């Protein structure tokens, strides 16, 4: 009888460890996080890495290029850069934002992309590349 109990102890421990891992992953919303990483295809990753210099290298000189800075709390500065380009349907405005702390520059983030004339906003990576194909850099 004792040998049967000892035989099942590793299996029971493995099931308990698996149950704890599943519970922790659900608690920290890891399945949704993994879903988002997988769903985020190459277009979304390409949008995520855009910087003003990269946009200029891929799309050329913008029609207009405005940079403004806003002081924040505790030695932070928010830098907003808006660049206008001729897109497939008209003018496309890219709004990139960076937050600097002290002398350390932050990472550029594409805050918004829209058509100022038709008031259209481009939300998905595919719609952004359709409006301004040069962003793909191919």
Describe the structure.
With 138 residues, the chain is an alpha+beta fold. The chain has 2 domains: 2-39; 45-136. 42% of the residues lie in helices and 28% in strands. The protein has helices at 2-27, 30-39, 42-48, 52-59, 125-131; strands at 64-71, 76-86, 91-101, 109-115, 120-121. It has a 5-stranded antiparallel sheet, with no helix packed on it. Helix 3 (42-48) packs across helix 5 (125-131). The longest helix has 26 residues, at 2-27. The radius of gyration is 24 Å and the shape is elongated. It starts with a helix and ends in a 7-residue tail after the last helix.
Average pLDDT taken over every residue: 82
Shape, per Cα inertia axes: elongated
Could you say which structural class the secondary elements and strand pairing correspond to?
alpha+beta
Intertermini distance: 69 Å
Within the largest sheet, what's the order of strands?
Answer: 1-2-3-4-5
Strand residues, percent: 25-35%
- The Cα radius of gyration reads 24 Å
How many helices? The count is 5
Low-pLDDT stretches are: none
Q: How many strands, what sense, and barrel or not for the largest sheet?
A: 5 strands, antiparallel
Number of domains: 2
The SSE string, one letter per element, is HHHHEEEEEH
The percentage helix is: 40-55%
Count the beta strands.
Answer: 5
């Amino acid at each position: 009888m004792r040998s049967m109990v000892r035989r099942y102890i590793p299996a029971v421990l493995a099931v308990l460890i698996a149950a704890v891992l599943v519970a922790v992953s659900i608690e920290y919303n890891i399945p949704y996080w993994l879903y988002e990483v997988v769903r985020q295809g190459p277009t979304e990753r390409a949008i995520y890495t855009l910087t003003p210099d990269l946009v200029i290298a891929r799309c050329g000189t913008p029609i207009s290029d405005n940079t403004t800075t806003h002081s924040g709390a505790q030695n932070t500065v928010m830098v907003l850069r808006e660049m206008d380009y001729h897109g497939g349907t008209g003018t496309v405005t890219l709004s990139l934002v960076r937050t600097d702390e002290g002398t350390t520059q932050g990472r550029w983030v594409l805050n918004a992309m829209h058509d100022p004339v038709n008031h259209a906003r481009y939300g998905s990576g595919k719609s952004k590349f359709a409006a301004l194909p040069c962003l793909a850099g191919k």
